[in-house]
Hints:
Blueprint: H1 4-23, H2 35-38, E1 45-47, E2 51-55, E3 60-61, E4 65-72, E5 76-83, E6 90-93, E7 96-99, E8 102-108, E9 116-125, E10 130-138, H3 141-146
Parallel strand pairs: 3-10
Antiparallel strand pairs: 1-2, 2-4, 4-8, 5-6, 5-9, 7-8, 9-10
Signal peptide: 1-30
Protein name: Lipoprotein
Keywords: Signal
Amino acid sequence: MVKKTTLIQILLLSSSLVFILCGCSPQNTAQKSSDCNKKQASCLTLSFTESEAYFDHNLILSEQVYNVTFSSRKPIKEVWLEAQNMQMGNIVLFLKEDQQYQYSTKLIIGLCAKPVMEWVMYIRFEDGTVDQQSFTSYWSADYQQSN
C-alpha cells in the first residue's frame, strides 16, 4: 500500500509538471484572423478627424465580443458609446495603450429591445476636444440584410 505522504508527493509533482509544461509555454502573439479578414471583406472602420477606430469584423451583432483598435494623431483621454434610437446611457470603453497613440479594447453590445441600433462613438482627447462617428449594430445578420 502506498503511504499517504507518497501519494501527496506524487500528486504535487505531477501537477507541478503539468503547470510547467502548459503554463510556461510561450504565448502565441500572432493575432487571430478576424471574421472579415477570413472572408476577405473589409473590417468596419470609423474615421474621425484625429483618429480611426478599427473593429475586427465588418458587421456588429449584439452580444458578441469585438476587438477594437484605435490609431490616433494625439492622445485619447476616453471613449464611450451612446445609443441614438433608445435611451441606454453611456457605454464606456476602457482603453489599453499599446503604443504611443495606439489603443485597444474589447466591446460587447448588449441585446436591445430594437433589432437595429444606431450608435455614436465619442472620443475625448487629452486636449479636451471631442470627436464622434456613427455606426449600426444588429440582433443578427438577418436584420442587417433586410435593411
